[in-house]
Amino acid sequence: MQTIQGLAKINLTLDILGKREDGFHEVAMVMQSVALSDTLILQVAKDSDIHLAIDVPWLAADASNLAWRAADLMRQTYGIKDGVEIQLTKRIPVAAGLAGGSADAAAVLRGMNQLFALGASDEELCALGAKLGSDIPFTLLGGTMLATGRGEKLERLPDMPTADIVLAKPHVSVSTAWAYKSYDAAPVTSHPQTDQMKRAIIDKDDKRIASLLSNVLESVTMKKYGIISELKEKMLQYGARASLMSGSGPTVFGIAEDGAHAQHIAEALRQLPAVDVFVTKTAKSMRK
Ligand SMILES: C[C@](O)(CO)[C@H](O)COP(=O)(O)OP(=O)(O)OC[C@H]1O[C@@H](n2ccc(N)nc2=O)[C@H](O)[C@@H]1O
Ligand SMILES: Nc1ncnc2c1ncn2[C@@H]1O[C@H](COP(=O)(O)OP(=O)(O)OP(=O)(O)O)[C@@H](O)[C@H]1O
């Protein structure tokens, strides 16, 4: 039996550099793992099927689920005859910009590698993960990374100084494909300073990291959902060092001064209707 945590991510920066021939967008993003996680328990099944059980009824536990698809890909790639039972406990909000589905897929790739003693390297697992989704290689490795290409090319950065993070997810779901499709570079005048963010992380300069948070997809998702700007403003009003939308949204994260301050911001945000609030921390890389 293997128990694996799939960690959520936030984007400290997200820049779109252009459209690619394969329909995806060329990106440059500094990604950061946070401790908020889903739990996946994997066991060899008695039969030769994939069995996925999820603790919430509203998420499809069938072949459309990224955890199921990751298990299928592992079985096909390595010729595994046994089936696998996957128990998924969901805590990361869905379609939130936090890479929850990717984290589950990554946990299944890693979990099956161990369960069936396949000996696949991180590089092999990342290459498989990239077939299922652009964020999966990052969620496999975690920590602080610069992601380029369509998000699958990774450069490890030193772990950023641990920060207390508040996540606020309004009750709207955002499709990543829709956000990229709707992106119009023309009116976007402010782009992330990716190299400066890298430098700030290398220098462990947490104030500068906060001052450089930037995401061009805010121009798409914030225009449609006014609640995102409200959440950003509220976080700043309650003293967050900085706040930003993560990924394609709609989740907004704020960097607090410490754990007590994060709780204070969270309490204020919980007064708002139709918002789920989580207090977490940045998570360090599990592999070096
Ligand atoms: C928004 C982010 O979460 C930021 O980390 C990622 O860029 C999205 O990663 P993801 O959810 O793993 O995305 P994928 O499952 O690979 O792609 C979903 C859809 O988003 C669009 N997409 C995604 C990544 C990318 N670099 N360019 C794109 O245009 C494509 O239309 C694609 O069909
Ligand atoms: N295991 C899973 N957990 C969550 N969503 C899943 C899973 N498998 C498939 N999905 C589908 O994937 C879609 C995106 O969900 P997810 O929570 O990964 O979005 P996200 O956080 O916006 O991802 P990203 O930040 O990588 O763009 C949802 O519409 C959901 O139906």
Automatic annotation (TrEMBL):
Residues 198-271 form the GHMP kinase C-terminal domain. InterPro entries: GHMP_kinase_C_dom, GHMP_kinase_C_sf, GHMP_kinase_N_dom, IspE, Ribosomal_Su5_D2-typ_SF, Ribsml_uS5_D2-typ_fold_subgr. ATP binds at P93, V94, A95, A96, G97, L98, A99, G100, G101, S102, A103. The keyword Metal-binding does not apply. GO terms for biological process: isopentenyl diphosphate biosynthetic process, methylerythritol 4-phosphate pathway; terpenoid biosynthetic process. Its EC number is 2.7.1.148. The keyword Ribonucleoprotein does not apply. Keywords: ATP-binding, Isoprene biosynthesis, Kinase, Nucleotide-binding, Transferase. Signal peptide: none annotated. It catalyses: 4-CDP-2-C-methyl-D-erythritol + ATP = 4-CDP-2-C-methyl-D-erythritol 2-phosphate + ADP + H(+). Pathway: Isoprenoid biosynthesis; isopentenyl diphosphate biosynthesis via DXP pathway; isopentenyl diphosphate from 1-deoxy-D-xylulose 5-phosphate: step 3/6. One of its GO terms (molecular function) is ATP binding. It is an enzyme of class 2 (transferase). Catalyzes the phosphorylation of the position 2 hydroxy group of 4-diphosphocytidyl-2C-methyl-D-erythritol. Belongs to the GHMP kinase family. IspE subfamily. This is 4-diphosphocytidyl-2-C-methyl-D-erythritol kinase. It comes from Selenomonas bovis. The gene is ispE.
